[in-house]
Every structure is written in structure tokens, then in C-alpha cells.
Amino acid sequence: MSSDVVGSDVADPADAVAVAPSADAGFLQRHGTTIEYILIPGAALCGALVVFGIFVALFGKNPLDLYFYMYQGAFGTWFSWQNTLTRAAPLILTALCTALPAQLGMVIIGGEGALLIGALSATSMALAIPWAPPLAVQIAMAAAGTVGGGLWILLAGALRQYRGVNETISSLLLVYIGLAILNHLVEGPMRDPASLNKPSTREIGAANMIGSIPGTDVHWGLVFGLIAAVAAYILIYHTTFGFAARVAGGNVRAARIVGLSVGKLVLTICFIAGACAGLAGMVEVAAVQGRTNANLAAGYGFTGILVAFLARQNPLAIIPVAILLGGISASGGLLQRRLGLPDASVLVLQGIIFVFVLASDAMYGRIGFLKGKS
Q: Does 331 reside within a domain?
């Protein structure tokens, strides 16, 4: 019996050594894709920051000071956090405008146009019912904004489905059409005569503003964005509709063979995607601007494209990525004051990040150790 005990004691370490590699390999095979989705975008982000640091160093600035002030401006204080979260709210919603159609293999980049149309629709609704109670006005504005934005992106989906028009090109062109419509109405029929220097519509009224989350300066748009992201994740990954959309996105021919209505999926997804961006426009009017004017074209829709790509089109991953990009945007003012950099320098960083994200796409599935290979 003693020899058995000794033999067992001696064998256990050897067995552990023998089992460990296969256990590690099994872990990597099971979770390698998840690790890739974190590691590769993270590496792309770090590479972009390094390149941006070099870019700033060429102008005689210390890259370490750059990184410090970026952190301070984004997350260093409670005020910074509130500014970051306020900017993240529309980014979550506009990122969903790109991420949801991506499940069907579509590349929609017209979130900016849907945001503008949503804002214009929401403002029009508020001005049309000034006699209604504030809560009714807010609900009507949200409904008008989502429907307006949804129909705007639905148009891009319909052009692809029925006329074969590339949705990337059509959604981008719709951005400029939406901006032209907004400028025409704001500078013409809907213009407030009192807005002399910057043409604007009449104000929706202080009572109809949606206000801030209690105890913070962050408006309720952040909550709308979080709810929309969670709802989108459940829709795509935990419903038969979402499964059908992912099947159609993987192989349209197979989806048609098994009887899926691809056209209905395309139109429905595009409407939901546009509704998210339209809601972002409503939030910008009802929580920030109080009226519609050219300030709404702040680029949230275009930054939302970057958020969606960096999050690999995952609705839940969009939340932290939107907060990160919102923080980068929020740090622009501090970089201008402390380092003398233009406020728009953060747009250069966003462009570099986008290039790195696109370049890193070729790395997925090619990292051997993440597959459990020796």
C-alpha cells in the first residue's frame, strides 16, 4: 500500500505536466475567438496611439504629456467622466446603426444622416404640439425621431434590395441629402426669426427637455443608449429573428433555400438601425441643443462607424468602445488648452485608429497560439 501511495505521489506531477498542455490547448480552442476580439482591436488601438504620439512629437510636443492629458480629459475627474458619458450616448446609438445591418453583411455608414433626420422629425413634432403635456411631447418626439431615422436608412436598404444599389454608397449619399434638407428647412420654412447669427428652429421649450440623470450632469440619452444596446444584443443573439439575420448574413443563397424572407430581414434590420440613429438625433435636440440647427452635424454618425468596427459589430461591446471614443473626443479641449493642439486633433487620432482597425482585420483567425497550436 505504501508503494501505491508513493507511486501516486510521484506520478501526479508528471500527469499534471502531461495534461496541462492539452488543457491549455482546449481552453484556447474554446475561447480563442473571444480573445482575438479583445486582443486584436486592443493592439490596433495601442498602435494608433503610438503613431499619434509620433505625429504630435513632430510638432515639438511630448507624447507622454499627450497621453496624460488625454486620460485627464477623458477619465481623470468626475467632470471628465460626465463629459465622456454625455458624448458616448449618441455614439452608442449611431454605432448600432452600423452594427445591426452588419449582421446581414451590409455596410451602412449613413448614421449621420439618420441622426439629422431624426432630430428634424423630433423638433417638428415638438413644435406641432406645443399644447401637449411635457411627457406626451417627449414620447411623441422619441417616436417621430425613431420613425424618421428608421425610414431614412430603410430607404438605403430598399435601394439595395429592389434596385441593386450598393448600400454603402447610397447610405453615405443620404447623409448629404439629409444635411441639405435640414439646412433648407432651418434656414427657410422652420427658421426662428430671432436666430440671426446661426439659423435655428424655434426652441422646443424648457419643459420638454429630457433633463439629466439625478445626481449627474449626464442626460438620459445614455440610459436610452444602454437599453438599445442590450435590446439589440438580445434581438440578434437570442431570438429566431436574429438567428435568421445571421444566417442570411453568412450565406444569402442558403437562407433563401431554407425559406427565409431575406428582403423582409433587410428592410426590418435597416429600419431598426435607422431608428437607433434617429433616437440619437432626438436626444441631441431634447437633451443638449433644445432646437435644430447646424450644430447637430457634429460627426457622431461617422464616429459611430468607428465604434461599430472597433467593437466587431457586437452590440454589447459597443458600450465600452463608445465610452472610450467619447473620452477621446472629450479630451480635445484639454489638449488644446495644455498642449496648444487644435481641438480637431482628436479627429486625426480617430482616423488613425480607423486605419489600424481596418488593417488588423486580416489578423483574425491567423494567430496560431490562439487556436491551441504549438
A: no
pLDDT tens figures, 66-120:
999 999 999 999 999 999 999 999 999 999 999 999 999 999 999 999 999 999 9
Q: What are the helix (H) ranges across the chain?
A: 2-57, 63-71, 78-102, 111-128, 134-163, 167-187, 221-237, 240-250, 252-257, 262-283, 300-310, 315-330, 332-339, 345-360
Q: Which cell goes with 223?
A: 440610459
Domain membership of residue 365 as a residue range: 21-61+343-374
pTM: 0.88
Is there a single domain that holds both residue 200 and residue 306?
yes
DSSP line for 189-222:
TTB-TT--SS-BBPP--GGG---B-TTSS-BTHH
Question: Does 39 fall in a domain?
Answer: yes
> Do residues 34 and 145 both lie within one domain?
no
327 part of a folded domain: no
